[in-house]
Amino acid sequence: MKKTDQDSRNPKPNTLVFLLSAVLLILCLGSLVWIGLAERTAAGKSALLAVISSEGAEDLVIDLSAVKEPYVLRIDAAGGGYNLLRISKEKVEVLEASCPDKICMRSSAIPGTHLPIVCLPNRLVIRYKNVPADSAGIDAISY
Q1: Three-state SS for 58?
Q2: Is the terminal CB of the chain with fewer CB neighbours within 10 Å at N or C?
Q3: What sections of the chain are H helices per DSSP?
Q4: Other C-beta atoms within 10 Å of 77: how many?
Q5: Burial of 106 (0-12, 13-18, 19+ CB in 10 A)
Q6: What pTM did the predictor assign?
Q7: pLDDT, mean of residues 122-130
Q8: What is the structure's pLDDT at 83?
Q9: Cα separation of 126 and 93, whole Å?
Q10: What band does 143 get if pLDDT is binned at 50, 70 and 90?
Q11: How far apart are CA 56 and CA 24, in angstroms?
Q12: What DSSP element (H or E) covers 24?
């Protein structure tokens, strides 16, 4: 059988290229799984903190992972306003606020999120922060 020009232009794929591509794909997928498992393990060993700030200064830092029983905390604003917070394990809720729009009360009721809670009229900001239990270890982000 005679070789045509079309056969020489379309050579059969090389099996070595396929093998190297498969190994590279397996390594990439394995590293993604390893990174995901490492992040999940690190998140399980961290403490969840709630940082409560008013008037731009950090007033209170609460370790939410150490809270045994829920309790109510009143934060008074400089302008005479106030916020009543319920501190419980893993979350902070605004029960009552003296502000006119009550957005802080609605935003704190979003389940499963750790978005900051902000009450602009009372100048209150509640943000969540994860702190690793062993902060002496390697920081994977800056390493």
Answers
A1: strand
A2: N
A3: 5-9, 15-44, 103-107
A4: 18
A5: exposed
A6: 0.59
A7: 89
A8: 92
A9: 10
A10: very low
A11: 50
A12: helix 15-44
Order of all β-strands in the sheet with 91-97: 71-76, 82-88, 91-97
Owner of token pair 């943000």:
127
Amino acid at 117: I
Task: List pLDDT tens digits, range 48-105.
Answer: 888 999 887 888 899 888 889 999 999 988 888 899 999 988 889 999 999 999 898 8
* Sheet strands (E) in the chain: 46-54, 57-63, 71-76, 82-88, 91-97, 117-119, 124-132
Q: Which two three-digit tokens encode residue 71?
A: 């309790």
CA 135 to CA 88: how far, in whole Å? 24
* Residue with tokens 């009552």, as numbered in its chain: 96
In angstroms, rounded to a whole number, what is the distance separating the alpha carbons of residues 45 and 41? 7
Would you say residue 40 has pLDDT above 90?
A: no
Residues facing residue 52 across a β-bridge? 60, 126
Q: What is the mean pLDDT of residues 3-21?
A: 69
